[in-house]
Amino acid sequence: MNNLTIRQQSIIELVHQQEYCSIEDLAQQFEVTTQTIRRDINELCQLGLTLRHHGGVGLPATLSNRSYASRQITNQQEKQIISDEVVTAIPNGATLFLGIGTTIASIAERLANHSELRVVTNNFEAAHVLSHFENIETWIPGGRIRTNDRDVVDGSAEHFFGQFSADIGIIGCAGVTEIAQSHSDMINLGSTTIDTQPFAMEHELREAKVSKAILANSKQKWLVANKSKWQRRANTKVAPLNYFDRVFSN
Question: Which residues form the HTH deoR-type domain (predicted)?
Fold first, then answer.
């Protein structure tokens, strides 16, 4: 970090706060040209401190998630707006599945005025909040709580969701990624066409398995993902976006 310019250090701070910054926004903020910002970003990417995206820069690729505390303060306003929209759409008397993540915990905080809800969740923060609401019945799986993520994602959680049937299952994701899908042309058997399809992705297979269990046992399947998720990379498939009944984003 000692060899970085003050502007480059500031870019890193902004990326960690927002998860993604566009080149044009950075150029305006620092009152320099977009070419100057691109040079800064190229150097930061070479050092592995950031990851270049089309039109901007984001967090470096990682096989694991950042800490819950770090994610909790990122894009707070966006998550609150999404949470308010989701909660408004949840009817009283419903059985809900709530998955992992800080946006899901934000949704739980806003359910205080709902009545006759049954909530099944492996999100420890969401469960802690819901435990204070007498009008909500809350169920959690047994298992080891991950200290970094404050959730349970081992096999017991996957099996636990399979014992219920939910009206609505709500999950978040680590990222939304366009994945190439190849298929043979039935008219011309010698050719193959390539289509891309956006998928909700997670960092780890066990996280993805629990999210799949939530979706498989839910009548309505909802995804929450703020705009930064479209700029982040994760490597484990959960489901294509067209599998969801509703996608809440900004």
Answer: 4-59
Beta carbons of 154 and 142 less than 8 angstroms apart: no
What does 136-148 look like in DSSP terms, one character per residue? EEEE---SPPBTT
> Could you list the residue range(s) of the whole structural domain that residue 207 is in?
68-248
**Spatial distance between the Cα atoms of 227 and 16, rounded to a whole number of angstroms:** 15
Q: How many domains does the chain have?
A: 2
Helix axes 34-46, 6-18, angle to 10 degrees: 80
Look at residue 69 and tell me whether its pLDDT is greater than 50.
no
- Dihedral angle of Cα 101, 104, 109, 113, to the nearest 10 degrees: -170
Kind of pairing, strands 166-171 and 218-224?
Answer: parallel
Q: For position 147, which CATH number holds?
A: 3.40.50.1360
Residue 50 has pLDDT above 90, yes or no: no
CA max distance for the chain = 63
Relative to beta strand 95-98, strand 117-121 is parallel
Task: Read off φ and ψ for residue 202, nearest 5 degrees.
Answer: -125, 165
**pTM to 2 decimal places:** 0.70
